[in-house]
Amino acid sequence: MIAKLLGLRIFADENGKTNLALKDIGGELLLVSQFTLYADVRHGNRPGFTNAGAPQEAIELYEYIIERCREQVSTVETGVFGADMKVLLTNDGPFTILLDSEEILPKKAN
């Protein structure tokens, strides 16, 4: 998943084509845990989070991802895990991409 994140060619080259990855442009990375993205809204009007990971597992995974990204990207900023933060985001480009590990990573055999 980290290789996919860092390898996505989503930045424009000199011809305006999206041919460059974060490493190609010397870009920086902001990693913010966002528990609410895992909300299940299929039933009723209140989001459910029963399928989300346990907090301890989630923080360990978040810290692991931060460490691995810092090995490959010179500047990695982070949010505070579990905090109520105000994050300002400006999309600079033609698209927004959702990376879903359940779709990208191979399924584990039982």
Model regions low in confidence, pLDDT < 50 over at least 5 residues: none
Q: Which CATH C-level class is it?
A: Alpha Beta
Mean pLDDT: 88
Shape: globular
Structural class: alpha+beta
CATH fold-level name? D-tyrosyl-trna(Tyr) Deacylase, Chain: A
Distance between the termini: 21 Å
Order of helices and strands: HEEHEHEH
User: How much helical structure, as a percent, in the residues?
Assistant: 25-40%
Largest sheet: 2 strands, antiparallel
Number of helices: 4
According to CATH, the homologous superfamily is D-tyrosyl-tRNA(Tyr) deacylase
Strand order of the largest sheet: 1-2
Account of the 3D structure:
With 110 residues, this protein is α+β, with helices and mostly antiparallel strands. The longest helix has 18 residues, at 55-72. It has helices at residues 2-7, 22-25, 55-72, 101-104; strands spanning 11-12, 18-20, 29-31, 76-78. It has one domain (2-104): D-tyrosyl-tRNA(Tyr) deacylase (D-tyrosyl-trna(Tyr) Deacylase, Chain: A, 3-Layer(bba) Sandwich). It is globular and about 50 Å long.
Could you name the key traits of this structure?
110 residues, alpha+beta, D-tyrosyl-trna(Tyr) Deacylase, Chain: A, two-stranded parallel ribbon, 4 strands, 29% helix
Give me a quick take on this structure.
This protein has 110 residues and is an alpha+beta fold. The protein has helices at 2-7, 22-25, 55-72, 101-104, and strands spanning 11-12, 18-20, 29-31, 76-78.
